[in-house]
Specification:
The chain is α/β, with parallel strands linked by helices. The chain is built from eight helices and twelve strands. The strands form three sheets. A five-stranded mixed β-sheet has the order 3-2-1-6-7. A five-stranded mixed β-sheet has the order 10-9-8-11-12, sandwiched between helices. The protein has a two-stranded antiparallel ribbon with strand order 4-5. It is globular. The two termini are 22 Å apart.
């Protein structure tokens, strides 16, 4: 049974193909390119599987910002919370953990107990704790975001809680002659400071990190004293799309089987 999962993110669209419980294909397309080159509009947004070079699928599930715009005849939309929770359960095999997902424009913190979502916290009001903030700060520093993620020692203090004002504050520190290493560490630590109040609302021993910020080594070093175990998901940026496929396998397939049983 082939399943297609699409996570329509604010910066990237992530696609996963699974056959039974095995990932057989994955790729990522910029959101602008996806809508422009792989979709058409006919009352509803229609995703062209032919243009994506995807053959026939048995189940298609979507999540992300654009999940309710995809072709209703083909895709079953599910919430981002549900998609990311299912993805983390699939990837880790754990039943109890706290999931931290830092997206391009939002933060999701989800508590999972006995494989069930029991609580969550969202930050969708400001980009200061999101991936877009980190990208902008890396651009100001003229370093790659991957390089910036490696610095954590002696961080310069950045106090602004606004993504726009943080850039001005960072430029001020550059003008003081602060080293690049301390500036990068300061950006990473400022992210940690913004996330910690959200994370401390939940208790748990294991923290699972997904999303592009899962590559932030400095953030994980700052978090290590707060949790007994920190797990970085494999294919962290694809977690939402993986969760869509897992939902298609475990939930939709079960529902379809129940419906067939009732008909018989």
């Amino acid at each position: 049974m082939k399943k297609l999962g699409i996570d329509l993110g604010s910066r990237q669209v992530k696609l996963i193909m699974m056959d039974e419980d095995r990932i057989i294909e994955k790729f990522m397309i910029s959101t602008m390119s996806f809508y422009k080159n792989y979709c058409s509009y006919d009352g509803k947004l229609m995703v062209s599987l032919d243009k994506l070079n995807i053959g026939s699928v048995d189940t298609a599930v979507s999540t992300g910002y654009g999940r309710n715009n995809t072709d209703i005849k083909l895709f079953t939309p599910i919430s981002e919370i549900k998609a990311h929770a299912y993805g983390a359960i699939y990837n880790t095999g754990l039943k109890n953990f706290i999931l931290l997902d830092v997206g391009g424009q939002d933060v999701k913190i989800i508590k999972i107990e006995k494989s069930i979502i029991t609580d969550l916290e969202l930050n969708e009001k400001c980009a200061a704790s999101c991936g877009r903030y980190l990208e902008n700060m890396a651009n100001v520093l003229e370093v790659s975001i991957d390089d910036m993620f490696n610095y954590y020692e002696n961080p310069v203090e950045l106090n602004s809680t606004c993504a726009v004002f943080s850039e001005s504050e960072l430029i001020g520190e550059i003008a003081k002659g602060i080293s690049l290493e301390r500036l990068c560490a300061g950006v990473n630590y400022s992210l940690y400071k913004r996330l910690k109040p959200l994370l401390t609302k939940f208790t748990g021993e294991t923290l699972v990190i997904s999303g592009g910020v899962a590559k932030n080594n400095a953030l994980k070093i700052y978090l290590k004293d707060d949790y007994e175990k920190i797990i970085t998901l494999k294919d962290a940026q694809y977690n939402g799309a993986i969760g869509c496929c897992y939902y298609g396998e475990k939930v939709l397939k079960h529902t379809q089987n129940l419906n067939l049983t009732n008909i018989q």
